Amino acid sequence: MRLTRLFALTGAVLALLVCGMLGRLLWGEWEHYRAAGSGHHTLQLMQRAMIAAEKLSFERGPVNAVLGDHVPADPAYRARLLRARADTDQALAQLRRELAAAPVPAALAGALPLAPLGRLDQALAAARQTVDQLAALPPAQRTPERLSETVERMFRLVPLALDAVTGYTRASEQVYPRIGRILTKARLTVELREFAGRLGSALTVPLASAQPLTESDHERLQFLRGRIEQLRQLIKIPSGDIDTEPRVLAAVARMDQLYFATGQRLVTEVELASRAGRPYGMDTGQFAQRYVPCMSPILALRDVLLEEAQAQALRDFQDARHELMLALLVGAAILLALTLLLLILRRRVVVPLLRATRAVVRLGNGDFSLPPSGARRDDEIGDMLRALATLRANSMDRQRLEQERLHLIEELKVRADTDYLTGILNRRAFTAAGNLRLRGASERNETLAVILFDVDHFKSVNDSYGHDAGDQVLIRIADVVRDSLRDGEIVARYGGEEFVVMPACCGLEAAGALAERLREAIASEPLTLSDGHILRVTASFGVAVAHGPHAALDDLFHAADLALYRAKHNGRNRVESQV
Ligand SMILES: Nc1nc2c(ncn2[C@@H]2O[C@H](COP(=O)(O)OP(=O)(O)OP(=O)(O)O)[C@@H](O)[C@H]2O)c(=O)[nH]1
Q1: What is the DSSP-derived secondary structure letter of residue 353?
Q2: Based on the domain organization, do 205 and 135 belong to the same domain?
């Protein structure tokens, strides 16, 4: 796999892993944040439902007062009843608005008892109608049965509202278990308030009719007291930090003092008066005026608990939002760091490595055009690039040396084949070339000729003008002969003042003619020495040919040498051919 692809793949896998981890973290924080938000909302719904239940309980007080009064009822009692009804309607309307404004999460919708609210509306309208009808009757016609039935109808309203409270409490506990215990206590206080109200209402009929309590009334009072005490104990069961909160402790103490001491003593007084056959000394309205305020600490305790739960939910909501923001920031920082790390790795490692690889490949191909960059870096990549630069310099040196060596070999080769004085081929090179040509001529069944010539009286040139002048004569003769030859014809210095020519391909006659032309060229060319002297020299030529598969170069030379000898002997400056 290519390095770039491996790097891209590694980067993608790393990014995926980090994104997965961050996604998991963010999802957890988001869930926490949402749960805290939902908990906060359902808590508000629960509070609204509790207030509605409380208002329904309150409404019973003015109802009892109106039903216990004459016709028309005391306008103050009537006004209280209307105010209580308006308060109840307002509380229910607020609960509905709250529900409509910010619906609870779909998962909880089933847990929220919306149906009881509809039933409550119908039951409330019917109960109020019954109250109004009974209040319109003269007190004598308000039989205990009708009174207790009407009061019972009012009683039945509260459980419907409490159903909603219970539903919202469960929903709150479900989405937000942290405040579940506080909410349970709050719900118990609502129930306690309801039973406290019922305890008071149980005295409505006897007080309204100024009749003693029946055994059934006593039993009912007994039952309600038991349930109230039970609820009181349940509320006091320790359930965590909330029980040590000073505000909660103070609210519980006030409830004990005002309701469980004063309020219940009032009920006991009525009971004792009934048993002793004494008048009660108060009607229903007067009883309610003394008893109802004693129940307010119960609701105060509920409010304190709810405020604590709200505060806790708000704190958690803010904490969750803070945590979510922090997780988002940390996530963004991690992603940024990863991206930067990958970019730095790419820039500092991968790209230099790829460049170095390209440089090495080019070096291998003898191309030094890409100098490795970044050799100043103080790290391993820098070490590698410096080593690469050294390798490149060494390779360049080696290539230069190799070129010099080849040049030298070529030069040596030329020198080995060249006569140092005249620059034409020397005897060794001529012999090699001659053997090659002779072999080729034998194969093709052709004739090969050789012309051997020697400068006449050369010793006297040396003697008369000096050795240097002799050298100049030899150089000049070589030039003259070389200029006279055609392609494929070679000339060599055979030794001393003796030269040899090999024509391209010709017989004895043509070689003789060539020798004659060369002789004439030498003889007719005046040679000007460096000191200004002008010389004319001649040469004698011997021509011989070889033919056939067994021809040897030595024999050919020997034959030419014999012919040359004859040319010398016959007067010099002439051409003699093999006989
Ligand atoms: N200047 C010079 N002289 C050379 C060189 N090689 C040989 N000689 C001289 O050539 C002369 C040859 O002389 P000889 O063999 O007597 O022949 P010649 O004087 O040419 O007489 P013939 O060949 O009989 O015509 C000698 O004096 C050699 O020293 C050379 O490279 N340079």
Answers
A1: H
A2: yes
Look at residues 333, 355, 381 and tell me which one is the last residue of a structural domain. Answer: 333
Give CA–CA dist 53/58, Å, rounded.
9
Residue bearing the CA closest to ligand 1, atom 7: 496
Catalytic: 497? yes
DSSP 511-579: HHHHHHHHHHHHHHS-EE-TTS-EE---EEEEEEEE-STT--HHHHHHHHHHHHHHHHHTTSSSEEE--
HSE-up of residue 349 (Cα within 13 Å, Cβ side): 10
Q: Specify if 499 maps to a domain.
A: yes
Q: Are residue 183 and residue 301 in the same domain, yes or no?
A: yes
Task: Report whether residue 110 contacts ligand 1, using a CB cutoff of 6 Å.
Answer: no
Closest residue CA from atom 21 of ligand 1: 457
Residue after which a domain boundary falls, among 417, 440, 473: 417
Q: Could you count the other beta carbons within 10 Å of the beta carbon of residue 81?
A: 23
Tell me the C-alpha to C-alpha distance, in Å, between residue 472 and each of 169, 422, 484, 530: 130, 9, 18, 8
Ligand 1 centroid to Cα of residue 493, in Å, is 13
3-state percent helix, strand, coil for the chain, nearest multiple of 5: 75, 5, 20
DSSP state of 73: P
pLDDT in tens, 200-222: 988 887 887 888 999 999 999 99
Is there a single domain that holds both residue 99 and residue 238?
Answer: yes
- Under 8 Å between Cβ of 309 and 179: yes
Domain of residue 382, residue span: 371-417
**Domain membership flag for residue 146:** yes
Q: CA nearest 476: which of 516, 426, 512, 521?
A: 521
Residue of the nearest CA to atom 18 in ligand 1?
457
The number of beta carbons lying within 10 Å of the beta carbon of residue 388 is 20
CB 537 within 8 A of CB 456: yes
pLDDT tens, 40-96?
Answer: 777 777 888 888 888 988 898 888 888 877 778 789 989 999 999 999 999 999 988
Please tell me what DSSP assigns to residue 446: -
Pairing relationship of beta strands 490-495 and 539-546 according to DSSP bridges: unpaired
Collapsed DSSP state (helix, strand, coil) of residue 454: strand
* Pairwise pLDDT comparison (548 vs 24), residue with the higher score: 24
- Whether 459 lines ligand 1, by a CB cut-off of 6 Å, is yes
pTM for the structure as a whole: 0.55
If one counts the domains in the chain, the total is 3
Q: Which two tokens stand for residue 18?
A: 């980090």
